[in-house]
Amino acid sequence: KVTVAQEIDALNLYLDIEKMRFGERLTINFAIDEDASDVLTPSLLLQPLIENSIKYAIAPCERGGAIRIGAHVTGGMLQLEVSDDGPGMVDTTRVSNGRGVGIRNTRERLQVLYGDRGVVSATNTHPGLRVALSFPAERAAAPA
Q1: 125: Cα separation from own chain's centroid
Q2: Cα–chain-centroid distance for residue 105?
């Protein structure tokens, strides 16, 4: 596990490459609450969701699009989200029945670590898709 801040730093390395590839066609917006920065998350948890947004929302669209990455803590739970302004998901049951590989792998990772308290949901936002993750917030130990 890494902190949310470390996860965002790792994502930025990947996103820098994608920004070179897509140029002005790719806009990234972060909405990371300061309170969430030191909360632990499984390493590289968000990257497959970002990859999905780039593959299904940004790449096929001539004008490109935007991806929003958010994190906040509510009621002792870390809430993470990746949303885009693409076409959304034609069949959102792909998420609930496990046919979407990136989302399915994310769900499985959370369930192994957090059981029923690790939740993944996907919602069409017209335009776009929002994938939300929720699991118990565990703070990183303060440096000695």
Answers
A1: 15
A2: 12
